Amino acid sequence: MQARLIAYPPDHAAVVRSLRPGDALSIGRAPDCDLVIAHPSISRRHAELRGEADGWRLRDLGSKNGSFADGLAVDELVMTEPYWLRFGDVHCEFAPLGAAEIAAGEQGQSLRRAAATAHTMRLQGLTRLDDLLDGSLRAVLDLAQCERGFVLFEAGDGDGYKVHSSLALDPGRLGAREFSGSVGAVRKALQQRRAVVANDVRSEAWLATRASVVAAGINTLVCLPLLDGEQTLGVLYADRVRPGPAITTLDLELLEAFAEGAAVWIAVRRTSEWLDAQPAAPQWERIVAAQFGEAG
């Protein structure tokens, strides 16, 4: 019986592992574990999943903070049906898979890769900076399967970061309390220059304490910095209120690759439009002619 395990580490993309009959999956904080979960509540060698004739055997390896299945502490359990697992404070979703589900999962991965490639190619045909920013945002919303978002961008005019494109969000209300959770994620992405992902915002301590998260009902968010060498051009932000598929490590890989490519095109177009806006420079021939004229 094949199966799938999805781990939801706090402040990270979901980690998906496909399990085939006879596989053994070690879970822990140690770098040589098959599924490494770098979280302080996880023991170095926390638990093991092993495929056997009668199902998938979960065995706790004497962990400090325990292993749980559907809320109950377990030392050993044979699983033949879906379970919500918890190792320390990290939640995981276990599910046996049939042939149709396996095929659908593989097809979904192929479609997501193709969509990311198509979005990247589409950007190359955009010649206006505003169109690039809008196209980048729409692509991230599609790839992350989110509902709303905005682009924070530094135009190089000395006025700092501004919202230059938004979808299903009123830019004028981003300073209101219901958006402070979003702003917190953006600040973190800008400061750390890395992607910020929350698959269950309410389980993230740094977000869940904000009243704004409850007010807005944000379920999932992703924030991607736009990097041009040592310079941070801005951030692509997307979120959704409705439940939906987790943002996985594959999704994040595609999103980060897209954002990297988008940042290159955005930087080039920003420079081009800045140069176009400059006063016309005098031609060298005219300068020389003027000098000779004065000398004569």
Question: Topology, please?
Answer:
Elements: E1 2-8, E2 15-19, E3 24-28, E4 35-36, E5 47-52, E6 55-60, E7 67-69, E8 72-73, E9 76-79, E10 83-87, E11 90-97, H1 99-123, H2 129-144, E12 148-154, E13 161-167, H3 180-192, E14 196-198, H4 205-208, H5 211-216, E15 220-228, E16 231-240, H6 249-277, H7 284-295
Parallel strand pairs: 3-4
Antiparallel strand pairs: 1-2, 1-11, 3-5, 5-6, 6-9, 7-8, 7-10, 10-11, 12-13, 12-16, 14-15, 15-16
Helix pairs in contact: 1-2, 1-6, 2-6
Range of strand content = 25-35%
Query: Which structural category fits the helices and strands?
Result: alpha+beta
What CATH architecture of the largest domain do you see? 2-Layer Sandwich
CATH topology annotation of the largest domain: Beta-Lactamase
Task: Please state the average pLDDT score.
Answer: 87
Describe the model.
- The chain is built from 7 helices and 16 strands.
- It folds into 2 domains: 95 residues, Sandwich (Tumour Suppressor Smad4), CATH 2.60.200.20; 168 residues, Beta-Lactamase (2-Layer Sandwich).
- The strands form 3 sheets. Strands 2-1-11-10-7-8 form a 6-stranded antiparallel sheet. A 5-stranded mixed sheet has the order 4-3-5-6-9, with no helix packed on it.
- The chain is α+β, with helices and mostly antiparallel strands and 296 residues long.
- A hairpin with a 2-residue loop joins strand 7 and strand 8.
- 35% of the residues lie in helices and 30% in strands.
